[in-house]
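Example 5.3 — HTH-type transcriptional regulator YwbI
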Amino acid sequence: MDIRHLQYFMEVARLQSFTKAAETLYITQPTISKTIRHIEEELGVTLFDRSNKKIELTDAGKIIYEQAQPIVKAFQSLSAELGDLKNLQKGHIRLGLPPMVGSSFFPEVIGRFHKTYPQVTMQVFEDGAKKVMKDVESGLLDVGVAVLPTDENLFHHFSFVMENLMLLVHPSHRLAGHDAVPLNELAEESFVLFREDFALHDRIITECLRVGFQPRIVYESSQWDLISGMVAANLGIALLPETICRELDQERIRILPLINPSIPWQLGMIWRKDRYLSFAAREWISFTQKVLMGDRE
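Solution (predicted structure tokens):
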């Protein structure tokens, strides 16, 4: 006996008629009669008294009817809940965003997603890209934004930003009038960097070592506006993505291209390859890919 059999039995009991129950269930009367006989044979009891024109529940039938009601109701509720999830009427997404990414790219995207799927709730966790990647890997987050490349064996991803880091200096700095600055020109400078849990922290140090010097770090922060503020106060230099630089006050800071080498900054949405994603999370990935890739194009 399965839930469908119980539903057939409940409808016959409610309407006191095999014919009417078959009509409301859109099945044939022989099918419903066969199902009831199957239940009776399986349980070893008679469910309906068929001696009168209107069939009536037997004592055994009444017991089963009472016990079956919450079961069928729970199944109907479960089906409705799953339907809501499939139709994106409900759901919850845990999203990880690096701070400088969130303010630049995602307020509008999240707003558009919420307008399309108002019943889907979202928790946004702001952390450095390295922490976001770790939390997506562990399952604490459904999806997140990270600096690419990532481990191809662990993550699916799509890229939505590809640009370079720019050099920020004070207007009075010796390099302020240059058209572009080679990285090795910064060997004697004081650097203001993101903290160690940000992917750019390691990326900048690695590139500096590659051209022959260990950067002298005077301050680390998790906030790009504080980093740029320290440059404006002439406390050091910084390297920030082009997107962030477009939001800075260029009266207080000079922004210059970095060359030989340039340092790329590629962002992507990542999610685990081997973990189940909810309907809501899958729709978020599809939605943001269309919006962000479309905006980029």
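Remark. The CA atoms of residues 190 and 296 lie 34 Å apart.
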